[in-house]
Design a protein that fits this description.
Length: 188
């Protein structure tokens, strides 16, 4: 784990590889693959990730397209209902905001393992931009509800938060839902 953390810190998520981490640890790459399915697993373990967005996204994208926004928000709120996961998530965000190397690693991981998968799945014009806009809403929700605990959002029932936030996420990702896609004018 120390070798993985050092490799990710020095090379970033994109450039680090299972082989380079094994080399740094002085072990055969097969040993690393024995314990970790892929680089995303190793990265998540090295930062003690409280939730695995790469796995969540895979499950959600396999479900009904019209429920993507709802499923993302409902899953996130349920996962962060656990105090340990919530504390770790806020700590990760705090570290990423305060240290450039942490921000770089988190950005590369989220871009490669989450946002690109979403963009590829939803397709269409500006898919990467739409995925990153949805991510900005989700991170904002995490910060406001769990980080700074602004009321009434901090204690609002999950169903209320899902009902109010999910349509925005859905609209960003698919253009579907109560926010009509034709009501927004694209920038020139």
């Amino acid at each position: 784990m120390a070798a993985a953390a050092a490799e990710f810190a020095s090379r970033g998520y994109e450039s680090a590889s299972m082989r380079s981490i094994a080399r740094r640890a002085g072990v055969d790459p097969a040993l690393v693959h024995h314990y970790f399915q892929d680089k995303a697993d190793l990265f998540a373990e090295s930062i003690s990730a409280p939730i695995r967005p790469d796995r969540i996204v895979k499950e959600i994208l396999a479900g009904p397209r019209e429920k993507i926004g709802e499923n993302i928000i409902r899953y996130l709120l349920a996962a962060l209902d656990d105090k340990t996961a919530r504390t770790r998530m806020i700590s990760l965000l705090h570290t990423a905001l305060g240290q450039e190397f942490a921000a770089t690693m988190l950005r590369q991981f989220l871009t490669r393992e989450v946002l690109r998968r979403i963009a590829d799945s939803i397709g269409g014009p500006d898919a990467e931009l739409r995925a990153s806009l949805a991510a900005s809403q989700i991170v904002g929700l995490i910060v406001v509800r769990f980080g700074v605990a602004i009321e009434p959002l901090a204690t609002a029932p999950v169903d209320v938060v899902v009902a109010m936030v999910a349509p925005v996420i859905q609209w960003h990702l698919t253009g579907d839902g109560p926010l009509a896609a034709d009501s927004v004018t694209a920038p020139p």
